[in-house]
Amino acid sequence: MTELSAFYYDGHSSQRIACQIQIDAVGTITLPNGQRWPWQQLHVSPRIGNSARFIDLPDGGRLESQDNDTIDLLCQRFASSDNNSQGWIHRLESKLRYVALAVVITVASVWWFMAAGLPVLAREVAYQLPASITAELGAETLTLLEHSRVFSDSQLPAEEQAQLQQMFAQIAAQQPSEFHYQLHIRNAASTMGANALALPSGDILITDQLVALAEHPDALRGVFAHEIGHVEKRHGLRMILQSSAYPLVITAITGDMSIAASVLAALPGWLLEAQYSRGFEIEADQFAQRYMQSQGLSTQHLANLLRQLESKGGHETHGWFSTHPTTDSRIKALETQ
Amino acid sequence: MNDLPSYSSIDTDDNNQTHRQVPFQFHGEAGAFFRIWIVNLCLTIITLGIYSAWAKVRTQQYFYGNTTLDGSSFEYTATPIQILKGRLLALGLFILYQLITALMPVLALPLMLAAALLLPWIITRAMMFRHYNTRYRGIRFGFDGSYLQAMLAYVLLPLASAFTAGILYPYAACLQQRWLANHSRFGTSAFSAALSAGSFYAIYLSALGLVITTLIMFFVLQFAVPTLIPFMPLILLPFYFMAYAYVRVKVINLTLNQAHLSTHRFHSTMETLPYLWILCSNTLAILFTFGLAYPWTCIRSARYRARCTSVLVTGDMDRFIQQTYADQQAFGEELGDALDLELGV
């Protein structure tokens, strides 16, 4: 004979009767009103921590009990397929080693997804989308940049500018894709200094200061090929896709979209972006290297330019250069052909 | 369970009614919920999201089951299969929406119109599902708000307020709370709350004062200490949180303190600053633990909510009668979740 302390509700009214329920050796329970039911016919709510359990009686009545251990014992002894189907989950939750395992699996898979899965996913999606979408992305950024005071008109002589344009057009013409490439030469003496950047639309900006730093035209060819590589590999769109997935991942983890979660979403996004952009730089370098090799040109000059940029340091370490964090390894990669 | 009062007497003399204040209590613990949460998360990942329906039900059951009023626990009765069906439908609709807007941008406007027509239906269905699947003392809650009223409170008035510089917004919020409170039922008994538009205007005007003060401070700081400009969002964020916390706390208190159920009344004593502290510290805790503190933040929020809420019981709570309804589908609930609807109090 087992006893279970519970509240009894008849299912029709909210009247509550506290009672001791008797369960005999074959699992028949006896209620205070004399009703008798076999345990196998009851529906028992799954055990969740130590929260109250609810037992459905076949006539619509209900029992509520905090006595989880006794209920588990009864379910075990008089088990039916229905009334303890989620018991194994509770066993996972109550054993420390399974909980530890769950932490490891969860952290590892979230980390793997953010570091490896998401970039692949973003790349696949980016290549599926028509080039017109990325073109729109770039057009707005270009207008914004033109209106900002970061850049002013180039101070280079018109002749040199024309040479650069010709050099650029040569490389751009050899790309099989439908991007509309355009080179913008700008002065940024007092702002970002020696720098170059690519917009997803195919608009590529290079500063007078970077042109001045280059000791050989092949260094600039390398820079152009690198920036065109960013466009060809759709890095702008991929970055947007990857970063915008981050709040979704947070939501999936925490299971809610509260105000806190949306604030959180913005902050570590910066850390991730740095991580992602490192991968993009390496990809653009490889693109440039392949191009230079196909033309029989050396990447040594590009490597030299990178080294000069690094040694300049100072206030010019942001922009083009700072998103290229592993400069040493990049220089090495460019020098080994 | 032995320390609880026993309720064996059925009849109470109506002329001899007793009054007492019965607090809500929350018994959940961070450690226990962490285990549930991490196992949920792990199984959800392993099953590529399918288990999330079971995870949701277990989480809800943990929080409901650990919330007691006068010794009896609340109960969440939705089944994982219902939730799964609702989630799949919501996901399908979401993908459809994304595809249509991506491939046929011309349809974006008609689609938004359709969404506006659908929203009140989603909200109504979500409330019905949530209430139907909540039980206390074996009696189900219920909801009977109508589509048209939801349309007015959640779509038409907010739209109108957007065109009137927000003047109508507190009125919209008032109608929303009225709609939610006055159409909720416990068994056959209806909740009622006499909510005046004036009190909502008072709340929102005070919040507006807070926002204006913040903006003035922002401009003054910008000129006085230009070096602080990059940190402005960090300085302003707590004030934004504060306006949010203030409105939420005041609306909850107002609604609950006006609410009646049969002979019983509700009492809510939430305060802005403690609530704000919970919001901010929760955010920081989640941030610095890469999300692992999330279960702890849920538990302390629930504990605070319970601690501030009580029922002023007149007579006894034995006489509510069950109402029979058809089973509810989870579609509205899951769409509501997807849209991040903060419903009810």
Q: End-to-end distance of chain B, in Å?
A: 29 Å
Query: What is the general shape of chain B?
Result: globular
Major sheet of chain A, described briefly?
A: 7 strands, antiparallel
H/I helix tally of chain B:
11
What percent strand of chain A? 5-15%
Report on the architecture of this protein:
The complex is a heterodimer of chains A (337) and B (345). Chain A has 337 residues and is α+β, with helices and mostly antiparallel strands. Chain A is built from eleven helices and eleven strands. Chain B is of the alpha+beta class and 345 residues long. Chain B has eleven helices and ten strands. A ten-stranded antiparallel β-barrel of chain B has the order 1-2-3-4-5-6-7-8-9-10, surrounded by five helices. Chain B is globular. At the A-B interface, strand 1, strand 7, helix 2, helix 3 and helix 8 of A face helix 1, helix 2, strand 3, helix 8 and helix 9 of B.
Compile the SSE list and pairings:
The complex is a heterodimer of chains A (337) and B (345).
Chain A: E1 2-9, E2 17-23, E3 28-30, E4 36-38, E5 43-44, E6 53-56, E7 62-65, H1 68-77, H2 87-94, H3 96-128, H4 131-147, E8 152-153, H5 158-173, E9 182-187, E10 196-198, E11 203-207, H6 208-213, H7 217-232, H8 235-254, H9 259-294, H10 300-312, H11 327-335
Parallel strand pairs in A: 9-11
Antiparallel strand pairs in A: 1-2, 1-7, 2-3, 3-4, 5-6, 6-7, 8-9, 10-11
Helix pairs in contact in A: 3-8, 5-7, 7-9, 7-10, 8-9, 10-11
Chain B: E1 19-26, H1 30-46, H2 52-65, E2 67-69, E3 72-76, H3 80-103, H4 108-132, E4 134-136, E5 139-143, H5 147-163, H6 169-182, E6 184-186, E7 189-193, H7 197-224, H8 232-258, E8 259-261, E9 264-268, H9 272-288, H10 294-307, E10 309-314, H11 331-338
Antiparallel strand pairs in B: 1-2, 1-10, 2-3, 3-4, 4-5, 5-6, 6-7, 7-8, 8-9, 9-10
Helix pairs in contact in B: 1-2, 1-10, 2-3, 3-11, 4-5, 4-11, 5-6, 6-7, 7-8, 8-9, 9-10
